[in-house]
Each structure stands twice: as structure tokens, then as C-alpha cells.
Amino acid sequence: MPGNQTLQKLQWTEQNDAFCLENKIAPAAQFLWRYLVAEGLGTEIEIDLTDFNKQVTKHRGKGYCRLTLKNALAQLEQHRVVNIIRQYTWKIVKIVTRPLDWLNPKKNFPHRNQNYNLQPSNDLSAVEGESSSSNDHLRDEMIAECEEILSECEKAGITFNPEQSPEILEYSLEDVKSAIVLFHSRGGHEKDWRGRPKICNPQGWLLSCLRKGYYLLPESWSFGGLLAALGVTL
């Protein structure tokens, strides 16, 4: 389709930034949108969020957790930036990324009435129903995982209010559990000889641990490991 070839040449603009600012698009969702713009606009494509996360890792040194990736895609769908045609798994989807002018209903753009769903009319309702059901399932999964994260923190004596500290929900359940294990190994709620907590701010400590990936580092080193790192063989 000639129109699509023109659309695919469009790049990220200041208008995209303005849309993100106005609609409070999260940084992860913005980065995903940039990625999708480069992949092509106005045409069906299949994307794997794992591939996107590889680009994220190159850019920021560490990829996003699964929950952040899900939230990013969900926010773009919520604001009609993308239309999810089919959801194969939580990370592999067939979508159409809409042009920016399509998202602004206040102006009469020439492409505004163009169909960017690209689905035959007799199949559209069935696909939309399937997509809606899949999205509901994913949303339920996300809510359940968030509840588990908060529950694990509470069991460890580190209570988070998700409205005041939403950052904790950006990490996977496995990462949070690993950080909690490290929290306990570093003294947790124990007190020192002066009667003061070894970790004065458990919530702040846990978030810092997750941000900086301390839980990914080995707890201790061995003499054999040191020799191996130095290239010394015995």
C-alpha cells in the first residue's frame, strides 16, 4: 500500500513528545513507542518484546522486567497508540502502530478516516473479542503478580503502599524475592550492639537493591575464584 510506505518513513517528532507529556506516558512506554515507530506505522507487524528489551539493554545497561514491559504495551493500547490484532503470548503480539495524526480527533487530517486495523470486516469482531479476552487475562495476571509482590514484602516485614511507592511493582516477583533474601542476609531487621537497626530504612534499601541489581551479585568470593579471575592455574 503506497500510503503505508510513506507512513513508515515518519520519525519521532516533538509532537510525539508533546503527546507523551500530555497523556503522562511512562518512560518505558515512550521507549517502546519509539521502537515501534522505527518498525513501521499503519501496517500489521508481529513484535517480540524480548527483541525490544535487547535494545533497551543496549541503551540503559539493563532490560525492563516483565511487568514493566506488559505495562508499557498496555498503556500504548489504552491511549490508542497501538491496536493489538492478536496476542500470541504476553510478549509476542501482532499489532498496528497508528500514525500520530490519527490519535488527535480535534483536527480533520486526511488520513484520519483510514482504517489502521487492517482486518476484514467479517473477521474483525471475532478478533477483537479474542484480543479483549486475552487482554483481560493478562490484566488479571498482572494484578495477581502485583499482589504477590506486595505480599512477599509484607511477609518480610517491609510494607509498601503501592500508591506511594509504585516502583516496587516495576520489578518481577523473582527479583523481589531475591532482593528480600539479600536483605535478610545483610541483617534485615536485626539490631547492632548499640540497639540500632542494621538497616534503618528497609523500604529504601530494598528499592535501591532492586535498582542497582545488588541481588544479582555473588554474596562472597572464593580464593579459587580469585585465582581463576587472575588467570592462575594450580
Q: Which terms summarize this structure?
A:
234 residues; mainly alpha; Arc Repressor Mutant, subunit A; three-stranded antiparallel β-sheet; 52% helix; disordered N terminus
Report on this model:
The protein is mainly alpha-helical and 234 residues long. The protein has a domain at 2-118: Arc Repressor Mutant, subunit A (Orthogonal Bundle). The chain is 52% helix and 7% strand. The chain has nine helices and three strands, in the order αααβααββαααα. It has helices at residues 2-8, 14-23, 27-39, 49-60, 66-78, 121-155, 173-185, 202-212, 223-229, and strands at 44-48, 82-87, 92-97. A three-stranded antiparallel beta sheet has the order 1-3-2. β2 and β3 form a beta hairpin. α7 (173-185) packs across α8 (202-212). It is elongated, with a radius of gyration of 23 Å. The model is unreliable at 1-9 and 106-128 (pLDDT under 50).
Structure class: mainly alpha
Gyration radius from CA atoms, angstroms? 23 Å
Shape: elongated
Q: Tell me the number of strands.
A: 3
Strand content: 5-15%
If strands are numbered along the chain, what order do they take across the biggest sheet? 1-3-2
CATH-assigned fold name of the domain at 2-118: Arc Repressor Mutant, subunit A
Mean pLDDT: 77
**Quaternary structure annotation:** single chain
What is the end-to-end distance?
A: 67 Å
Instruction: Summarize the helix and strand pattern as letters.
Output: HHHEHHEEHHHH
Which segments are poorly predicted (pLDDT under 50) over 5 or more consecutive residues? 1-9, 106-128
Overall CATH architecture of the domain at 2-118: Orthogonal Bundle
Number of helices: 9
Main beta sheet: 3 strands, antiparallel
Q: Give the fraction of residues assigned to helices.
A: 40-55%
